[in-house]
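Subject: Re: docking follow-up (S-adenosylmethionine)

Dear J.,

Thanks for your patience while I sorted out the input files. As discussed at Tuesday's group meeting, I've set up the holo structure prediction with S-adenosylmethionine included as the bound ligand rather than trying to dock it afterwards. The sequence and the ligand SMILES I used are pasted below, so you can double-check that they match what you have on your end before we go further.
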Amino acid sequence: MSFVKLKAARETKQSYVIQNTVQTSLESSAVPSEVDQKQATITEKIYKSIPEYLEIRTSSTAGRGLWAKRACGAGQVILAVKPHAAALSNEQLDSHCSQCFGRGTSPGLKRCTKCHAVYYCNSTCQNLDWSLHKHECIALQRIAASGDTSIPSDAIRCLGRIMWKRQKNGPTGDWTREIDQLQSHNQDLKPSAYELHTHLAISLVRYLGFSSPSETASFGLASGADLANFVSRFVTNTFTITDPSLTPLGASVSPPVAIINHSCDPNAVVVFPRARDAAQEPLMQVVSLREIAPDEEILTAYVDTTLPRELRQRDLIDTYLFSCACPLCASPPDVDPRESVWCPKGCGGMCPTPTEGLLSRCAKCKAVLQKTDEVLDAMRVGQQALDKATALQLSDPAKARQLTTNLLPILTSAGLTPSSHPRLALTRLHTVLLIAALPVPPTQAPLDEAVVAAANANAGLGGVLPFGHPVRALAVAELGKLLAVDEPSPAPGPETDGERAQARGRYPPSGAMRLRLALETLVQARAELHVGFGAVNEGGMVGRTVREDIVRLERELGVWKKGIGEALRDAREAGTISR
Ligand SMILES: C[S@@+](CC[C@H](N)C(=O)[O-])C[C@H]1O[C@@H](n2cnc3c(N)ncnc32)[C@H](O)[C@@H]1O
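The structure tokens for the complex came back this morning:
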């Protein structure tokens, strides 16, 4: 299985290199132990890609972390680096360049004529990657010659790339030391993780062409224990590389970015907005989601923060071996929108989702939620449908769509709010499936259905993610783009007061009202994308397309307004309406 899939729950995070000053003194708010001091001294000499306004400090609870020494504004790129190693997932190998991770463009990507497994934009990208691919190419050819038709996963190929680069840089080079300082959890692994770690270690040894782990000594890993630690470091510190729409593309490792600790209420995100220079790609950028004060720790989320606390904690313990004590986990609000049901009396307040045997009350009017069993049943079948539809999403999208279409009304009628789990996750999947199934050119009913689903997803995400979060920003952009699609048969304009009142309340709206809403939504999307994907990147690739959509819509609305103005003038001149 692809590592991208194994780590699908993990959120992205990245940045752009501001090559400069060496790490400065340790000014921790936590009092460092003797060991911490020693560690800090070591880190001072490396991590040259960390800019002078950031600082590595250590805490007794989370180990090393990254702190801001001065204030950072929302949407600021605070760290930018090219990962130490990266590999495309198997599914993306023939559609993306293995050097810059860009999507293939006409007249098409060029395939490596030796291994036939990887593709490049052109000879420039191929040459840039050659120092690593020359080893990888031999390994891939050896595997193909053995009769094995499957290409090793992105995790194995990324580990292989680290090994070859490690060999080239030597055991004492900064590059290798940054890799060796990544946190390993090999000593306290849970039995459930053994299988993944053992599978990775055995597959890596085979990929490198060895028959036993001891042969990895030439890479500076002298024993099986060293190899196990190496694999553990990789699992704890891997980032999923994504495209500008957050579609997973592969696995990567970046020690400076991996120093950043986790919070379920993060102040920064890691994104890959795509720079303009292929040699710099895939470029990881850490972007601040809100103002970060001097002496505040930079924190990103390792897991999907739209999930309820219990699921987030499970993912964090399974992969990262810690219990999160962030404010959202340690002192959750009375009603977390991720686990909420509308007030049974309809006062507009919310109740916490019920737990067996415990009464749930509306936080606003205190009404007791009576239909506990209905809610619990809906959540259970909703989760089952979500798991099934997610698994079928690519292999049988029609079946997946049938599942989401059938289940969403059950969750809605049980009273789950748009932000609650699993309603939000199902709505998001439903939206993706509807958009993928839109006919070309789109017909009215499927287009309207997709608009309604995207609006529901927006309502849900707005309740749990902060302004500018990349996931939320992209969802707003998606809704705006759907609203801006030319309607095949816009509803006729309202003529009477009653029709006008009805038209105002109708969703999705039609005609000029729809275009105006599209424009407002896209303007909001642009503002959010500028935060989540960095103002300096103009909101990344999606931000740039949204800007073009806004210009087009403004022009279209201008034509519409002008047309109405001219029609009114003609009517006045003809005496059909009074002056
Ligand atoms: C990607 S590393 C982060 C850097 C790490 N602290 C270090 O010293 O290298 C992830 C590991 O850091 C620790 N960690 C990250 N965030 C934490 C948090 N909020 N609370 C406790 N431990 C955390 C966990 O041990 C986790 O497996």
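A couple of observations from a first look. Residues 1-42 have pLDDT under 50 and may be disordered. Residues 115 and 138 are 7 Å apart (CA to CA).

Let me know if you'd like me to rerun anything.

Best regards,
T.
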